[in-house]
Amino acid sequence: MQLSNRTLNRTLLARQHLLERSTLTTDQMCEHLVGLQAQDVPPPFIGLWSRITDFDPATVSKGLDDRSLVRITLMRGTIHLVTPSDALRIAPHIQPELEKAPFRKGFNYGAMVGLDPDEVRAHGEAALGDEPKSAADLRAEAARRYPDRDAGAVLQTWLYQLPVLQTPPRGRWGDNSRPVWSRVQPWLGAPLDPTYPVPELILRYLRAFGPASTMDMQAWSRLPAMKKAVAELGDRVRTYTDARGRTLYDAADLELADPDLPAPVRLLGWYDNALLSHQDRARITGDDNPPTLRAFATNVSPILIDGFAAGVYKIFVKSGTARLRISPARPWTKTEAAQVEAEASALLAFLEAESEPVVEILEPGADLRP
Fold first, then answer.
1. Pairing state of beta strands 301-305 and 308-318?
2. Could you report the per-residue pLDDT of 63-81, keeping only the tens digit for each?
3. Is the entire prediction scored with pTM above 0.90?
């Protein structure tokens, strides 16, 4: 069965809870999505607000404090907000890929070339110890142990070599303070679990992002041997093809969404899961001239109209005013503009409740800088 791009779009949005907001709890949504992208502090809050009815940001802060949620480097080598169980069972698969990076010539201009990885790791374990350490303290320790090397590169190497996570206060609602790091086991009181099968992880990916190709799975996870993982799932997956004839896999017990379902306007966070998790992103960027990922960097975020990226926005806060500036990717109808303005106003009320809200819709393609 061949699937249209619109069917893929509506199915993705349904599984991402972007067609209508969900009653799942914060923890349940993190489990379903296999974590939320959280390299910066605001995006997971925007992602949860876009997906959960009456989302309370205090649930994230509380979860980080009571350790029922953690911020940890996982898929694609980036920070994700996940439950402890996912931290413990996904990290063992990601860790070997992370550990390969620091001693390559391309890492920080070869800053670590020539050093013994095992010795560097041992120094990192000693520096981190069993208590959380600030990045500044760890950088100072790196400079002490390796005075002839770039301390920042040594620190980054430790953070790749060792299973670590970010502890509060960073990541709480409104708290963008510098990272504080801890080894995973002392913080969660449990060791990593290397027994979690990769095929189970991929099946969860399909439940949140499918149908998808093995290239999509690899782009999401950065793990090798996706064809093998799919083969091991056997009849738990079914196959489709896309308009270009590529094989797509999906959980066998899930239905596809009706391509004619209405899709409300959504403002996502920068680097939202829905945007990053496929090698072919046409199902959300559209078929014509999809924007590069670079277009969504530096706090610039996508706006979905009828399910597809149709513009970008950025928020500027200054002198008691929160200004949400919007650059459409194409001319919008009056109805579309009104729907975007309503959702943008609601997002400002959520993110910047103490500021005077201003929504500005610019000309298509306009520079967002004020």
1. antiparallel
2. 999 999 999 999 998 999 9
3. yes
